[in-house]
Amino acid sequence: MEKQGRVVVDKVGGRSTVTRCFSKYPLKFIIPRKVGSSETDAVWVYTLTYGGGIVSGDSVSCEFTIGDGCTTVLTTQASTKVYKSVGSKCCEQVLEVHLERGSVSSIAERMQDYQVIAMVVLLGPRIKHIQNLVQENVKRMMSEQLQIPSTASGRQLKPNSDNRFTKPSFIASSSVFGPKGIGVVVRIAATTTESVYKFLQHQLAGLEPLLGVSPYH
C-alpha cells in the first residue's frame, strides 16, 4: 500500500529528533518545536486530516520509525469524523510503527484491559451542589467496588491464587482544587465507553436546570 505519510525519529546530538517527515493529502503532520520543558527529550507529532475526517474512497497509510532510545508522542485531532460513504467506496486507515531498542512501547500495554480514560472538571459556585453529590457518589461507588470481601463471621477472604483481586471494570476518583475548593476534578478509567457514558449521564443530570437538557441524554 502506498504511504501517505512517513516519520523517522533518530538521536541527533543526544536528543530525539525528526530526521524525515513526509505527508500528502489527505494526511498532514504538525511537529511543534517546543512542547513542555526544554529538558524533556520527546518529539510530539500531531496527525491531522483535511476537513477533520475521512471520506469514502480515502486510503490513509502512514509509517513511523522510532530509533534507539528515542521518545515520540503521536496524537490525533480531537475526533476523526467518518463521513457517509458514497456507493460502494470504502475508506481505510493503516498505521505502522517500528520501535528500535530502548524505545517506549505502546500505552496499551500499560492500560491493561482499560479502554477509556476520562477527566471531568466541575468548576464554579453555581454547580457546588453537583460537586458535592459527585464526590459522595464516587466515594460510595469505589468503597463498594474495592472493599475486600468478607465471610458471614467477619473474616476477610483471601485473594485468588495469584495474590490478586479481580480488577474492577470501572474506577473513579475525585479531588478538589483551586481557592477554597472552588472546583472538583473526577478521573475515570473503564473497560467500556458505555459505562462511562452511563456514569456521566447519572452524575451530570443535575445540570439540566442550568443547560435546558441533561448532558449525555
UniProtKB/TrEMBL annotation:
Keywords: Chaperone. InterPro entries: UreD. One of its GO terms (molecular function) is nickel cation binding. The keyword Nucleotide-binding does not apply. PANTHER family: UREASE ACCESSORY PROTEIN D (PTHR33643:SF1). Belongs to the UreD family. This is Urease accessory protein D.
